[in-house]
Specification:
This protein is of the alpha/beta class. Helices cover about 40% and strands about 20% of the residues. The strands form 3 sheets. A 10-stranded mixed β-sheet has the order 2-1-3-12-11-4-5-10-8-9, with helices on both faces. The longest helix has 18 residues. The radius of gyration is 20 Å and the shape is globular. It starts with a strand and ends with a helix. The structure holds 3-isopropylmalic acid and magnesium ion. The site of 3-isopropylmalic acid has 6 residues, from helix 4.
């Protein structure tokens, strides 16, 4: 039976970089003789414009049946006036929560060719390879109650709730411990347990699991403020980091920049049935949309993750990652990773170069 991939390009640079990923997928299908059917749907602002909502039930239904979802990016100034629950971002958040995609894997790996593009000194980032495991369907992003209320004195007050139940903490911790077992055997759990009860519970449970089931993993705990500092001070001390939804959002942008550009980083969001959605860590970058400046490599590497995790096509995934490394070796760079002596290329040239390397 053929495998179904749903593409959701979204907004801003999303469509441009998905186009490049689809060029790559086309070649991969031929090269590895893969039986894959691709469908496309609207999400985010694109869906708002066409249907008045950031995600339709129809698209969600197709997503549920897909073997893998390749997601671009959502959002842009055009939709900034939408009410919170109808913003483009809601389309993404709804997909995550409706499909139970609780485990967000965000690797931050430095391609040696890009050491110069990092804002940190070469020796601090050379060989960097860390994995952030971010909880994606709970925490303050989804906690109830939430809203804006008017107090008795007429002043408005905004409020959100930071909640995690034991089962949510344990299932994400399990993913992180198991990832650590397969990697460097080290796990850092990030919290704010000196202030927030919810994360004190988080620390308690992770500690318990570490002692009971994962004595082979070297577990440590870090407050989130310190973790942010350590990420830019000495990032190579980390192997796997696990944290809640909001801290993970923030720390993963920070980790991304260590690798030279957020334009290089893919991510996977998985549920308990191992269905997955794959997207670049970066956003829709409306400021450069349509100009051919976007770096398609994070999207192309997201496709590699999809092939690896959801379709178990390891060789195909390896081939894409190698092709990306090849084009960097050739000195090709989009603006975000440009450095002296390299060749500046546009979005579609970069995609074509990956395709050529795969065909070679
Ligand atoms: C991310 C993004 C999203 C998030 C936005 C677009 C809702 O920043 O995937 O990191 O906050 O999770
Ligand atoms: Mg983010």
């Amino acid at each position: 039976m053929s495998k179904q991939i749903l593409c959701l390009p979204g907004d801003g640079i999303g469509p441009e970089i998905i186009t490049e990923a689809l060029k790559v997928l086309d070649v991969i299908k031929q090269k590895f003789n893969l039986d894959i059917e691709i469908s496309e749907g609207l999400v985010g602002g694109a869906s708002l414009d066409a249907h008045g909502v950031p995600l339709t039930d129809e698209v969600l239904a197709v997503a549920r049946k897909s073997d893998g979802i390749l997601f671009g990016a959502v959002g842009g100034p055009k939709w900034d006036d939408q009410p919170m629950m109808n913003r483009p971002e809601r389309g993404l958040l709804k997909l995550r929560s409706e499909m139970g995609l609780f485990a967000n894997l965000r690797p931050a790996m430095l391609f040696p060719q890009l050491a110069e593009a990092s804002s940190l000194k070469h020796e601090l980032v050379a060989g960097l390879d860390i994995l952030i495991v971010r909880e994606l369907t709970g925490g303050i992003y989804f906690g109830e109650p939430r809203g804006v209320r008017t107090l008795e004195n007429g002043e408005r007050e905004g409020y959100n709730s930071y909640v995690y139940r034991e089962s949510e903490i344990k299932r994400i911790a399990k993913v992180a411990f198991e990832a650590a077992q397969k990697r460097g055997g080290q796990l850092t759990s990030v919290d704010k347990s000196n202030v927030l009860e919810v994360t004190a519970l988080w620390r308690e449970l992770v500690t318990e699991m570490g002692a009971k089931d994962y004595s082979d993993v070297e577990l440590s705990h870090m407050y989130v403020d310190n973790a942010a500092m350590q990420l830019v001070r000495a990032p190579k001390q980390f192997d796997v980091l696990v944290t809640g939804n909001m801290f993970g959002d923030i720390l993963s942008d920070c980790a991304a920049m260590l690798t030279g550009s957020i334009g290089m980083l893919p991510s996977a969001s998985l549920n308990e049935a191992n269905q997955g959605m794959y997207e670049p860590v970066h956003g829709s970058a409306p400021d450069i949309a349509g100009e051919g400046k976007a770096n398609p490599l994070a999207q192309i590497l997201s496709l590699a993750m999809l092939l690896r995790y959801s379709l178990a096509e390891i060789e195909a995934a390896d081939a894409i990652e190698k092709a990306v490394s090849d084009v960097l070796d050739q000195g090709l760079r989009t603006g975000d990773i440009a450095s002296e002596g390299c060749t500046l290329v546009n979005t579609s040239d970069m995609g074509d170069a990956v395709v050529r390397s795969l065909q070679a």
